[in-house]
Amino acid sequence: MYIQSHIIDTIPVFKLEDSMKNVVKFFKNTTYSHVAIVADDMFLGVISENDMAVLDASGKIDDYRYNLESIFVKKDTSWLDVLESFARNEANILAVVDEASHVIGYYNLNDIVEVFIDTPFFIEPGGILVVAKGVKDYSFSEISQIVESNNTKLLGGFISDSRNDVVQVTLKIGTTNLNEVIQSFRRYNYTILFGNNDDQFLEDLKQRSDYLNKFLNV
Questions:
Q1: How far, in Å, are 22, 41, 88 from residue 81 at the CA level?
Q2: Is the pTM of this model over 0.85?
Q3: What does the angle CA 91 – CA 92 – CA 97 come to, to the nearest 5 degrees?
Q4: What is the pLDDT of residues 58-73, one digit of tens each?
Q5: 174-181, long-range: CB within 8 Å, 24+ apart, which pairs?
Q6: 134, 142, 202: which is closest to 168 by C-alpha?
């Protein structure tokens, strides 16, 4: 997926010899999490907005070069890796660096998320299914086989959670035979965390039954 057209070149890049007051002013006037620092036009790192409370604004950026973080992406970094970098670094802006370590601009988190939302995973009609299984027991090839063996298209999927040796996989599948797909996943020992209306109906029925039992036992 092409995201290079979303590189922003209107956000400033600061030099080591610049005053920290300029950096403080930048963060006060924006909502960005980081800003890039260069020396002789070469990328050195970024300063985080979170550090502003502990850095002395009266000095030069050079005084805090060891506070710089090496957070950046390359121009040819894939959009999924760009999203991962945003999440891993808790950033809403990422410096984009070319092969010669020159800063050519920034990616804005909102822009990249919009690219993700415009993918067929979100646009194509279908149903969302969230399944879970042991990290050593699941495979995407098996998941694909389960969906397609029920004459349903797998439009996309990703690992949405992983903890305690259990992975959670969010799937977008075609709208046909959704219930059959769910039953197949259960036969393969997948736990259904979110499925179709039939599952929601059973959950609602259980809740109402529990309420009725409590009422009758009063």
A1: 31, 25, 10
A2: no
A3: 80
A4: 889 999 988 899 999 9
A5: 174/126, 174/127, 175/125, 175/126, 175/127, 176/151, 176/152, 177/150, 177/151, 177/152, 178/127, 178/129, 178/152, 180/150, 180/152, 181/129, 181/146, 181/147, 181/150, 181/152
A6: 134
